[in-house]
Design brief:
heterodimer, A: mainly alpha, Amino acid/polyamine transporter I, B: alpha+beta, 3 domains, 19 helices, 11% strand
């Protein structure tokens, strides 16, 4: 049982928004569809409400339980534990993916000559300290630090206003609907579907009846921000540049002559990546303590972070491979974690609840 | 599993505590100088005299006067006090003279009876206003020591405490540490009662409570907890009383002793208990629901809980008009950022991000930096060390020599360091700016050097990114801090709408001070002590 840790709903909004935006602020997540990226973002955004609504509903059906407890509850001791271990692997993998993507960005854009592992290791000091302090501190720090990303987006938007060309989004639907739908599916798994991790966090929120509202607020915020970024990139850079470039927002900011606004993006990327990694590893640590019936997660903080950092170094050989895997393989890899198992959990817990209500009524 | 503490500083504290415990174990001898006195007052006056002379042997300031009074029936009376701590006029006029003038024949019955003699003296003879009856002999000794005059009467089982305390003290003057242009010119003094009176004069309300207790085994220092009942949070008051009761110290000489015993994070560079010398400021804090601790013998009053925003507030903000006050708040915040970040930013710019600087500025910077044998990092460390040295020297020096320091500091350091090629001019400017801005936020002056150096190290390792990471660590530490259960960064995070109006700006007074808001110190959802642990599943 997890006790005594409380985060407010405002902090949940911030954490969820930060987590979902994550590295999609710098990486163009819908690169494949060129100028129609915004359409696929809108489609996946709409479906994200359904998906995250489902996650919240699962949490509501199994009150005060984390994902690991729900799994053991629903699938029994053995299958539940196997699935839990799979989920823990997923959390770990996700955290190392995030480590990799932001350190790639920084080592490509900001410090080309610094070894990537050094950047990751140095930044993980702050992450370790945050994890040692616990979720409340993480949430409060994120609350203050989260001011930076929207402000930097607004600054870039204002700076690049002159350089926008509305005709860049034409022709709309050049390649038909199919690639757009395919990309939207990818977008649903990354970034929106990753909110499955919040099934580990929802138990700490102090007003549980307002979780759905808070989640929807953060999805709305994320959707608006992503569409703004996407449209801005398309209008400033044009479809070809978008497809050729890995880090669109950085390119957009450098296209604008005059003041250098690049550090803003780097800082907001650091903030968002920190929120993501915190949530991932915190969920992982909570999962470990619950799976093995332990008292405290703190002895695991440093080992887990070290494993995650090293894993991030082994995952890909180079940045091109990273983007190929993120676009072509990751969506299918995420399907069981984000869709199949949650749907099964939902169905079984609905059946259980009906059974319960019948047994109590009779 | 080892249940580790959330706070890494607390862990360090545990190590210290453990070491202290071991030390005590190995010694295991405590010098017991506490007085071994009977609690009962001896009936025979001669015994009392012997006892007192035994206790106060070798104390020349102890005055014992034995007189015999009464017309037919004689009675011996001892009057004792500590020289220099009482008003002798009161004792002469209201006690001694009354004894001589009293007509004992009239009330001969009562005068001869032993049971009511103290009551009789209290009611009929002495005219001094503040009189108490004490039956505990040990307490009478304590009263003598704290400046009361004691009267023992032959045959009575209790003694009279005549409070005629009067000693020389500093008069009320303007506080040196917190000067204002507009506002009251009075500051706290060393006397506890004068201080409480100053607060009472500001808040004429019976709800303002002064609870006293004594701390320090050997010094027996008087401590006063002040709060306004109904506004201050009961949880915090009881927490404070618990912490004060845990103090097992020989001596309390200044409120700083108490502060260090009861504060939440002793190893943090940030203070979690506020200090002020101004009655108006303390009164304002009491009205906001805070608690003040006044310690006898020092003009510095502690206020708690203390939050980060209070370091940016000044009592003058509330006396000057909105725009100017808000402007000053912003100025203080900006100077806080400058004083902590400027050297780090400079190091990062020079070492890593030269492309961010406009070319002409870069040229002039590089020009001044040419020929300097050190890294910008070591240059900055060297120069800020110099500044800290000058600052400390300026405080410790006797006033007349202070002049010399400024000459040495300004001329020798400022001119010669550049001329000798040890530091660049830009670096001198940066350190000077850092110094000036650090004087704008004096409440943070204890924590500033640490933040500065942490950020400088970060900047030297990874430039802007290093600064961001170090800032993140500082932010994490700040948000993990609590002052008596209240989160340290409180109005910002956790976000409090009703408190945010008095932070970076100062909202108009008519919009801020509504009676309902005064009692908003209750942090219902986030109030509690350390909560970051996971309980084992049964």
């Amino acid at each position: 049982m997890l006790k005594n840790i409380e985060i407010s709903n405002k902090e949940l909004i911030i954490l969820m928004a930060g987590f979902i935006i994550g590295d999609s602020i710098i990486v163009n997540i819908a690169r494949a569809v060129k100028q129609d990226a915004w359409i696929s973002i809108i489609i996946s955004w709409v479906f994200a409400y359904v998906l995250i609504g489902m996650y919240v509903y699962i949490a509501k059906l199994n009150p005060n339980k984390t994902l690991i407890e729900i799994l053991i509850d629903i699938f029994g001791k053995y299958i539940g534990r196997i699935l839990s271990v799979l989920y823990l692997w997923y959390f770990l993998h996700l955290s190392s993916l995030i480590f990799r993507s932001y350190s790639e960005y920084i080592s490509i854009v900001v410090f080309p000559e610094t070894p990537r592992i050094f950047i990751t290791a140095f930044s993980s000091v702050a992450l370790v300290i945050g994890l040692k302090y616990g979720l409340e501190t993480i949430a409060r720090t994120s609350m203050i630090a989260f001011i930076i990303p929207p402000i930097s987006i607004i600054i870039i938007l204002l700076r690049s206003f002159k350089h926008m060309d509305i005709t860049n989004i034409q022709p709309v639907l050049e390649y038909g609907m199919n690639p757009i739908l395919k990309t939207s599916f990818g977008l649903l798994t990354f970034p929106f579907g990753e909110a499955i991790l919040f099934l580990m966090i929802f138990t700490f929120v102090n007003k549980k009846e307002k979780i759905l509202k808070s989640s929807f607020i953060s999805i709305t915020f994320v959707g608006v921000l992503l569409i703004i970024i996407s449209l801005m990139n398309i209008m400033v850079l044009g479809p070809e540049m978008i497809n050729r470039n890995y880090f669109n927002l950085h390119r957009t900011s450098t296209v604008v002559p005059g003041a250098i606004i690049d550090p803003f993006i780097t800082v907001s990327q650091l903030v968002l990546a920190a929120i993501q990694i915190w949530i991932c590893i915190y969920s992982l640590l909570i999962g470990i303590t619950q799976l093995f019936n332990l008292n405290d997660y703190k002895p695991f903080v440093i080992p887990i972070v070290i494993i995650s950092v090293s894993l991030s170094n082994w995952l890909y050989n180079n940045v091109a491979e990273m983007f190929r895997i993120a676009q072509e393989i990751y969506p299918y890899y995420a399907i069981p974690f984000q869709f199949i198992i949650p749907i099964i959990i939902l169905i079984i817990s609905l059946i259980k609840q009906k059974g319960n209500s019948k047994s109590t009524s009779t | 599993m080892v249940g580790m503490d959330n706070n890494m500083f607390r862990k360090l504290g545990n190590i210290f505590r453990y070491m202290k415990l071991e030390k005590e174990k190995s010694k295991n001898k405590k010098i017991d100088i506490s007085l071994n006195i009977d609690t009962k007052i001896p009936k025979d006056i001669n015994n009392i005299e012997i006892e007192l002379k035994k206790i106060f042997v070798d104390s020349f300031d102890f005055i014992l006067r034995k007189i015999t009074i009464g017309d037919d029936f004689k009675r011996e009376v001892i009057i004792t006090y500590i020289d220099g701590m009482i008003n002798e006029e009161i004792i002469n006029n209201d006690v001694l003279e009354r004894f001589l003038e009293f007509d004992y024949n009239k009330d001969n019955d009562e005068w001869t009876r032993e049971e009511d003699i103290i009551q009789f003296i209290k009611k009929e003879i002495i005219t001094a206003s503040d009189i108490r009856e004490v039956k505990d002999f040990k307490k009478t000794i304590e009263s003598i020591l704290s400046g009361d005059t004691l009267m023992y009467v032959n045959g009575a089982d209790s003694a009279l405490v005549i409070s005629a305390r009067d000693w020389k003290e500093r008069s009320i003057s303007e506080p040196v540490t917190e000067s204002v242009i507009r506002g009251p010119r009075e500051g706290f003094v060393e006397n506890l009662k004068t201080n409480t009176a100053m607060l009472r004069r500001k808040i004429k309300n019976p709800k303002l409570k002064f609870e006293t207790l004594t701390l320090g085994v050997e010094t027996d220092t008087d401590i006063c907890i002040c709060y306004i009942k109904g506004i201050a949070d009961e949880n915090i008051i009881s927490d404070l009383k618990y912490r004060l009761s845990c103090i097992k110290s020989d001596s309390i000489l200044e409120s700083g002793y108490i502060e260090q015993f009861i504060e939440d994070a002793p190893f943090s560079p940030f203070q979690t208990i506020g200090v002020s010398e101004r009655p108006d400021k303390v009164a304002g804090k009491l009205l906001e629901g805070r608690i003040a601790i006044i310690c006898d013998g020092t003009p510095f009053v502690l206020t708690l809980p203390y939050l980060f925003v209070e370091t940016l507030q000044s009592s003058e903000d509330y006396y000057s008009r909105i725009l100017y006050a808000s402007f000053n708040r912003m100025l203080r915040f900006i100077s806080f950022i400058i004083t902590t970040m400027l050297p780090a930013l400079y190091i990062a710019l020079i070492n890593f991000h030269t492309k961010v600087i406009p070319v002409r500025l870069l040229l002039s910077i590089m020009d001044s930096h040419e020929g300097i044998p050190f890294d910008p990092f070591w240059e900055a460390i060297f120069m800020s060390l110099l500044f800290e040295l000058l600052r400390e020297a300026g405080i410790r020096m006797p006033q007349p020599i202070g002049q010399a320091i400024s000459i040495v500091g300004a001329l020798v350091i400022g001119e010669s360091v550049v001329a000798a090629g040890l530091a660049s001019e830009i670096m001198i400017i940066i350190i000077a700016l850092t110094a000036i801005t650090s004087f704008i936020v004096p409440a943070l002056s204890e924590s500033l050097p640490f933040i500065r150096i942490i950020l400088m190290i970060g900047a030297n390792i990874l430039g802007f990114m290093g600064i961001v990471i170090m800032l993140a660590i500082i932010m994490l530490h700040l948000s993990s801090l609590r002052s008596f259960g209240v989160p340290y960064l409180s109005p910002f995070s956790p976000f409090r709408k009703e408190r945010i109006e008095d932070t970076l700006i100062r909202a108009p007074l008519w919009s801020m001070f509504k009676s309902s808001k005064l009692s908003s110190w209750k942090y219902s959802n986030n109030y509690s002590d350390d909560k970051n642990y996971i309980e084992k599943e049964d």
